[in-house]
Amino acid sequence: MEEKLLKISEAAEILGVSIDTLRRWDESGKLTAIKKEGGTHRYYRGKDIEIFASNLLKFASDWISQGAEFPGTFYCPTSSAFQGRLVKMERMLMEKPGFEKLYSLIVLVAGEIGDNSFAHNLGKWPDTPGIFFGYDIQKGIIVLADRGLGILETLRRVRPDLSTHVKAVEVAFTEFLSGRAPEKRGNGLKLVREVVLANPIDLFFTSGDAEVHLKGDDKSFRVTRGPNVVRGCMAKINF
Amino acid sequence: MKVKLEKFGTTLISRELGSEAFKAFQSTLLELPPNEELEIDFSGVLTLSPSWADEFLSPLLERLDERLILLPSDNLSVQATLKILQEANKRQFKFR
C-alpha cells in the first residue's frame, strides 16, 4: 500500500512552522521535501517529519548557538505557556509505567530549570524571549534552552567577584543565593542537583563554556569547561 | 484552619505564581485567629517546586512560626522541596 504523503500545509501544521519556513528548509537541505514526478508541489512522509522533529538537542543547540529556527511546537514564549505544556507533560509521565512516583521529581527538575530562564531574564532578554521546551516521554528525554543572559551574567549582579562560567555554574548549583536582588534566596538548582544525584535521572547542563554531566549510577557533581561557548542555558534531562 | 494547597493548582512550579498565590492568600490569613494553627494539606498536589514553595511557605513560616503546621505527604517533590527549604531558611517546619 502506498504511503499517504502530507501536503506542505499539513507538515507546517504538525511542526508549528510557516509554509515559507518549510520551503526554505527544503532549499537548504535541512528538511527535504518530495516532489511528485513532473510536479512542483512539496510533499512529506509522516515518518520523515517524525524523525526530523525528534532531534531535540540539535534544535535547541542550533537555536542558542546560531539563532536557527526550530519547530514552533517546542517554543514557549511566556512563563504561562511553559506552565501549560509542563502540565501536559506531567500527565503523560504519570501514565508511564514505573514513573508513578518519580514523575513529580522529573517535573520538578524540568520546571525549575525552565522557570529559572523566565525568572532571571524577565525584561532583560537580549533578543528572543522565551524558551525551547521539547520532550519525548517514550524515549525519556526532555530538552530546555534559552537565549538569555546565562548564569555568569545573572549571578554577577549579586556576586561581582565571579569571573568564569565554570565558577558561576558551580555557585548556582551549590550555594544558596539568587541573581534577582533583592530576592535573597535561590534554591532551585541546588535541589535539582540533589534530586538528580539521588534518583535515576541524568542531567546535562551548560551555560557559557561551563558543563555539568550527571550521568549513570555513580554520579558526582563537577563543573567542567567544555569546547563550546553557548548563549544562555541549555539542559538535557534523561530518565 | 486548614488550607488545601491544591486550591492554588496541582502543578506548583513558578516563583511568579507562588508569589501571586501568597498575595491571594492574605485575606484568608487575616481571618486566622491569633491562637489558631494553620495546617497546610498537600494532598492533590502533583508537583511542588522550591521556587513556588519559597514564595508561599517561607513567608508563612516567618509570619506564623510555630503556628504553621505541615501535614505529611508521600509525594516525592513535596518531600524534596520541604527538605531544601528548611536548609535554605535554616529553620525547621513543624509537621503533624
TrEMBL record, chain A:
Q: Which residues form the signal peptide?
A: none
Tell me where in this chain the HTH merR-type domain is found. Answer: 5-53
* Pfam families for this protein: MerR
GO biological process, any: regulation of DNA-templated transcription
InterPro entries linked: DNA-bd_dom_put_sf, MerR-type_HTH_dom
**A molecular-function term among this protein's GO annotations:** DNA binding
In Swiss-Prot or TrEMBL terms, this protein is called HTH merR-type domain-containing protein
Species of provenance: Candidatus Niyogibacteria bacterium CG10_big_fil_rev_8_21_14_0_10_42_19
Q: What is the lineage of its organism?
A: Bacteria, Candidatus Niyogiibacteriota
UniProtKB/TrEMBL annotation, chain B:
Q: What is this protein called?
A: DUF4325 domain-containing protein
Annotated organism of origin:
Candidatus Niyogibacteria bacterium CG10_big_fil_rev_8_21_14_0_10_42_19
